[in-house]
Here is the input.
Amino acid sequence: MGGLTTLWRMPDDDAPSLISRLMAFALVFLLFSAIFSFAFSQLQYDWNWRAVWQYRQKFLQGWMTTLLISVAALGLSLLISIFFALARRSRLLPLRYLAMLYIEGVRGTPLLVQILVFFYVVADAFGINNRYVVGILTLAFFAGAYLSEIIRAGIESIGESQLESARAIGLTTFQTYRFVILPQVVRRILPPLAGQFASLVKDSSLLSIIAVSEFTLNAQEVNAYTFSTLESYLPLAVGYLLLTLPISLFSRHLEQKFRYAT
Here is the structure.
């Protein structure tokens, strides 16, 4: 027993070995598996996987649509967030107030309402009829408000003495951001960025309200066809996990890459 405790316990000044990490993960996985196995075994439910399996192509199409929408919205939201994060720090008052109005307005209203307003009011006024384009733009503007505050907070966490030192050695504003601010900010904001990216992927399920054939809407349709609720929504949970887990893993990889001694 003492040997297992020593194996699983991470030394204070050393990284955990591969064997100890695998054993710890296996222990936690078996614990959760036992809990859920017991819970489902107590469920008086007549499983109907055969009926749901007939609509596997519909699940795959919905999953691919969610993937493409999420990737497009993530890239666009990052560009929007960088612009408004810098706008919040601008000396031009109209630009600063524009950023404040956008951020507070988006963060203070539900995404569901924003989707409906964008699609039935704004998009219609500008002649945009593609519901997929509207969905991507809405998700990007929604996530951009949260990401911009994360980026702004990361920038403002840099000590003023570092900025003064950069100006003292003759660095331009661009060089200061490139060589002084950016390397430190990236390391600090990666965890909240990854969390917000994962939330955006799951928030894409609300696009079903405007009949975007994404993962959630297709699962709802399969449920309506087969009357098999759990069989329709359990694959939904697994599918979203497959989309969000790589974001977390890639974020941790970048954290290690940008780690530096202080």
Confidence is low (pLDDT under 50) at residues 4-8. The first helix runs from residue 2 to 8. The two ends are 38 Å apart (CA to CA). DSSP finds eleven helices and no strands in the chain.
